[in-house]
Amino acid sequence: MATDTLTAPTIMGTASRPKVYKNFIDGEWVESSTGETFEDRNPADTRDVVAIFQKSGKADVDAAVDAAKRAFAKWRLVPAPRRAEMIYGAAELLIERKEEYARDMTREMGKVLKETRGDVQEAIDSAYYNAGEGRRMFGPTTPSELPNKFAMAVRTPIGVCGMITPWNFPMAIPSWKLLPALVCGNTCVIKPAQDTPLSTFNLVRSLADAGVPRGVINIVTGFGSAVGTPMTEHPDIRAISLTGSTEVGRIVGTSAAKSFKHCSLELGGKNPMIVLDDANLDLAIEGGLWGGFGTTGQRCTATSRIIVQKGVYGEFIERYVERAKRLKVGNGLDESTDMGPAINESQLNTDLKYVEIARSEGAKLKCGGNRLDKGDFQYGYFMEPTVFVDVDPKMRIAREEVFGPVVAIMACENLENAIEIANDIEYGLSSSLYTRDVNKAFSAIRDLEAGITYINAPTIGAEVHLPFGGVKATGNGHREGGIGAIDFYSEWKSVYVDYSDRLQKAQIDRPE
Ligand code: UN1
Question: Which residue ranges have their beta carbon within 6 Å of ligand 1?
Answer without folding.
Answer: 122, 168-169, 299-301, 460-462
